[in-house]
Write a structure and sequence with these properties.
Helix content is about 60%, strand content about 10%. The protein is α+β, with helices and mostly antiparallel strands and about 350 residues long. The protein folds into two domains: about 140 residues, no CATH class; about 170 residues, 2-Layer Sandwich (Heat Shock Protein 90), CATH 3.30.565.10. The protein has a five-stranded mixed beta sheet, covered by helices on one side. Helix 2 packs antiparallel against helix 4 and helix 8 packs antiparallel against helix 9. The longest helix has about 70 residues. About 25% of the residues are buried. InterPro entries: Bact_2-comp_sensor_kinase, HATPase_C_sf, Sig_transdc_His_kin_internal. One of its GO terms (cellular component) is membrane. GO terms for molecular function: phosphorelay sensor kinase activity. This is Signal transduction histidine kinase internal region domain-containing protein.
Length: about 350
């Protein structure tokens, strides 16, 4: 996945949004409280008290959320304990901060008349509402993470299944070619063995890593295409184009391999005569684009060129699923018919 450092860390942006939202909520609460108990305070003084109480309460909730022991508790007791600590801390601590800001003597923080009881009850209800919203958001976030993890595991399982389907096909054909080359052209057989070792080593590494670089991915493609060019001879020509500034870009492993294998297996191997494959990477606005072009048989005339599931084998579907898992709707895979023949598969990855 491409990582671009933001000038403002994500946790700081989240803190700014949380503070701004709490400030606005407290301002609304101050207006409602003045409407409910106009004799309690002047609007400006009431605003200062409500804002201080709200900010101290939010800060207390945020600090408590950093404690590992509290975060490991079950949801209900965790939020009950958070409320039991944060509500009185926010109420009393906020009043003390407000008195300091107003440069007033720290005297009686809580009154006992009916107006102060209205204020206390209102603050209690508001704090419970905020805790409920926070608990709901926390639960939804955990469920989203669980769904994402489940989808990622399912996609990885499909990738392992895809490897189990593709590698034997490639290995059996390569070994059959090697058997004939050992007697006919030992030097070519040695070269094929060397490239097979490179390919298998990179495939094994990709099976253990969650991300790889475009440089490593292209190295694996080069080993695979070298093997295929030895097998197919002059019928296959290939070109890889990876700009130096894109070599360290991180992507999911084995993302491009199925596209190249599909180009050869379904486009070039069944075709009579020579053909070629080109894998081209380039920067685009907002990310990168990698195109896999072939001059094979092309798309079937009765199927659309939009790259829908009906034209996708297991490899293409896996690529599309992994893009969605890693990047959501920001990434895409599309298929286009080339003229006069062949297919272009285009992967777009966001920055």
């Amino acid at each position: 996945m491409i990582r671009v450092d933001s000038p403002i860390p994500a946790h700081w942006l989240g803190a700014v949004r949380l503070t701004a939202g709490a400030f606005l909520l407290c301002a609304i609460a101050a207006g409602l409280l003045f409407w409910a108990a106009p004799a309690l305070e002047t609007p400006a003084r009431l605003f200062v008290f409500v804002e201080c109480v709200g900010m101290v309460f939010i800060a207390c909730v945020a600090v408590l959320g950093r404690f590992g022991r509290l975060r490991r508790m079950q949801a209900l007791p965790r939020w009950l304990l958070t409320g039991a600590i944060a509500i009185p801390t926010g109420y009393f601590g906020g009043h003390l901060v407000a008195l300091l800001i107003l440069d007033e003597p720290i005297g009686r923080v809580v009154g006992h008349d009916s107006d102060y009881m209205v204020a206390f009850a209102f603050g209690l209800v508001l704090a419970m509402f905020v805790l409920y919203v926070a608990a709901t958001r926390d639960q939804l976030a955990k469920e989203a993470i669980a769904r994402s993890d489940a989808q990622r595991l399912a996609t990885e399982s499909e990738l392992r299944l895809l490897r189990a389907q593709l590698e034997p096909h490639m290995l059996f054909n390569t070994l059959a070619t090697l058997r004939s080359l050992v007697d006919e052209d030992p030097r070519q057989a040695e070269r094929m063995i060397d490239q097979l070792i490179v390919y298998l080593r990179s495939t094994h590494a990709a099976s253990r890593d969650e991300v790889t670089t475009l440089q490593s991915e292209f190295a694996q493609l080069r080993a695979y295409l070298d093997i295929m060019s030895l097998r197919m001879g002059p019928r296959l020509a290939y070109r890889l184009d990876l700009p130096a500034e894109l070599e360290r870009i991180a992507i999911p492993p084995m993302l491009l391999q199925p596209l190249v294998e599909n180009a050869i297996r379904h486009g070039l191997e069944p075709k009579l005569g020579a053909g070629g494959v080109e894998v081209l990477a380039r920067s685009i606005e907002g990310g990168i684009e990698v195109a896999v072009d072939d001059s094979g048989l092309g798309l079937s005339p009765h199927l659309p060129a939009s790259g829908g599931d009906e034209v996708c084998g297991a490899g293409l579907k896996n690529v599309r699923d992994r893009l969605q898992t890693c990047y959501g709707l920001r990434a895409s895979l599309s298929l286009q018919a080339r003229s006069p023949c062949g297919v272009r598969a285009v992967v777009r990855i966001p920055s």
